[in-house]
Specification:
This protein is an alpha/beta fold. It has a single domain, classed as Rossmann fold, CATH 3.40.50.300. It has eight helices and nine strands. A five-stranded parallel β-sheet has the order 2-7-1-8-9, sandwiched between helices. Helix 1 packs across helix 8 and helix 6 packs antiparallel against helix 7. The N and C termini lie close together (about 10 Å).
């Protein structure tokens, strides 16, 4: 029986968003470690590094002046102010990976996700690649416990984050997929299943006839 060949798949731009403290950074790190072919574009930020974070690995840490210079130069695909600090994703890094056919992971806040969706609606290359996933704890009480356990913020900051998280969670229907966060392993299993399904979506395969009909 003769096999049939498939056109190569177009790349996936996997956008992962979540309320602060929901675990998207940790999930993203494990996702990259366990998913062959998936690469990460490092976000730029003006916030100071947290203990253990490395410049160019966890984030590109920029001064406010340098960040504003890059905004003016049109360097960012998306950028936003989150809890008083600026965050942005460099356009050239994302497009270079997509042009090479690489699947790309972006960890982006809800503001950045909205901007990228709007941009993808006008840009066929981004529109064909973009897949958005919203990761959220099953309740605000669970999120509160995670933020307190993380022990990175004083109580008043945690309360502000929880208030903003409730507004962000209300926007879950704007995303392609919703993942209710459980354990790290459960979150990884669900998000990897989404990525694998998207890699085999028929609309992601480039136009062209099969070499032979399907064998059934």
């Amino acid at each position: 029986m003769k096999d049939f060949s498939l056109p190569p798949a177009g790349p996936v731009l996997l956008l992962l968003s979540a309320p602060s403290g929901a675990g998207k950074t940790t999930v993203g790190r494990h996702l990259l470690e366990r998913t062959p072919g998936l690469v990460r574009v490092t976000t730029c930020t003006t916030r100071p590094p947290r203990p253990g974070e490395r410049d160019g690995v966890d984030y590109h840490f920029l001064s406010p002046t340098e960040f504003e210079r890059q905004v003016a130069a049109g360097a960012f695909l998306e950028h936003a102010v989150v809890y008083g600090h600026r965050y942005g994703t460099r356009r050239a890094e994302v497009l270079e990976c997509l042009d090479r056919g690489r699947d790309v992971l972006l960890n982006v806040d809800v503001q950045g996700a909205a901007h990228l969706r709007a941009l993808a609606a006008r840009d066929p290359r981004l529109g064909a690649a973009l897949v958005t996933v919203f990761l959220t704890p099953p309740s605000i009480e669970v999120l509160a416990e995670r933020l307190r356990r993380r022990a990175q913020d004083p109580p008043e900051v945690i309360e502000r984050r929880l208030a903003e998280a409730q507004q962000e969670i209300a926007l879950w229907a704007d995303f392609d997929y919703l993942v209710l966060s459980g354990t790290i392993e459960e979150d990884l299993h669900r998000i990897r299943a989404i990525l694998e399904a998207e890699r085999w979506r028929t609309t992601r395969r480039r136009a062209g006839p099969f070499a032979a009909p399907p064998p059934f």
